[in-house]
Structure formats: structure tokens, C-alpha cells
Design a protein that fits this description.
One of its GO terms (cellular component) is endoplasmic reticulum lumen. InterPro entries: TOR1A_C, Torsin. The protein has 159 residues and is mainly alpha-helical. It is built from 7 helices and 4 strands, in the order αββαααααββα.
């Protein structure tokens, strides 16, 4: 959604609005999934503050994140949802934030990828992949910059 030109999303408004039936087809049971990177910095900040407050990442509640994500979307004039009827009419049912992954999550990704390759996990491979992964913020090195997206290629490089 953050790559979509503002206003273009309005073509979906009839499918999400109160009518549910468009051109004779009932869209009541349709599920629309909109993916966006907007709000990522705010999500990371909430996760970091939770960690600094000695709260587990899994303890972060959706109610903490929804307002900051919504505000990030509404404040961004380049976002596909900016000033859209979908947002103004509150037609989105749920925001599903993707929290940043910590070192132990990336470790699990490495183990899963090795299992997919039919390889036994070796500590030196795990460590090499984790050491080649970028973590932030700079002082804490807490969250993976790319989640697990680069794990497979890093494993291939290490092997």
C-alpha cells in the first residue's frame, strides 16, 4: 500500500462498503489483504520501548500498535490509504503488525531452513549466519533489519 498512488485504492470502495453486492456479485465473504511498510519505524519503537521496559515482545498488544500505525498511514501523503474513503469510513477490520524479529527468532529461521535442506544444525553455521545478519539499534543489536528474508542466501554462502 505504501507504493500505491494515493486515490487508486478508491476503486475497491464499493467492494468494501456497506452495499456488499457489486455487479450482481456478493462480496460479503471476500477477504482483502493490504500490505504496507508504513508504520514500521513506529512498530520498532514500540517494540524497543517494551524491551527496555523488560516486557517480552509477545506481550505487546495490538491496542498499543493500532493507533501509531493508523497515524503513520494518515500522516503520509504518499501512502495509498492517504485521505481514502476506506480509512475515513473505517472499513478496515484489523491491522496486523509485523513485529521485528530478535536474534532467537532468526536462530529458529536458520534451524528451519537447515531442516528444509535436510541438513543437521551445526553451531558454527548458526553463528556464522547470525554474525552476518544486521541487527539494530546500534547499541543493543536487538532486532534483525531484514527479519529472516536473507537467511537462506546467508546459509548458502556459509556452506
Amino acid at each position: 500500500m505504501d507504493k500505491l498512488a494515493p486515490g487508486l485504492i478508491e476503486v475497491l470502495l464499493p467492494f468494501l462498503g456497506s452495499s456488499w453486492v457489486v455487479f450482481g456479485t456478493n462480496y460479503r465473504k471476500a477477504i482483502f489483504i493490504f500490505i504496507s511498510n508504513t508504520g514500521g519505524e513506529q512498530i520498532n519503537q514500540v517494540a524497543l520501548e517494551a524491551w527496555r521496559g523488560r516486557r517480552d515482545r509477545e506481550e505487546i498488544r495490538l491496542q498499543e500498535l493500532e493507533p501509531v500505525i493508523s497515524q503513520a498511514v494518515l500522516d503520509n501523503p504518499h501512502h495509498g490509504f492517504w485521505r481514502s474513503g476506506i480509512m475515513e469510513e473505517r472499513l478496515l477490520d484489523v491491522l496486523v503488525p509485523f513485529l521485528p524479529l530478535q536474534r532467537h527468532h532468526v536462530r529458529h529461521c536458520v534451524l528451519n531452513e537447515l531442516a528444509q535442506l535436510g541438513l543437521e544444525p551445526r553451531e558454527e553455521v548458526l553463528q556464522a549466519v547470525l554474525e552476518s545478519t544486521t541487527f539494530f539499534p546500534e547499541e543493543e543489536q536487538l532486532f534483525s533489519s531484514n527479519g529472516c528474508k536473507t537467511v537462506a542466501s546467508r546459509i548458502a554462502f556459509v556452506l
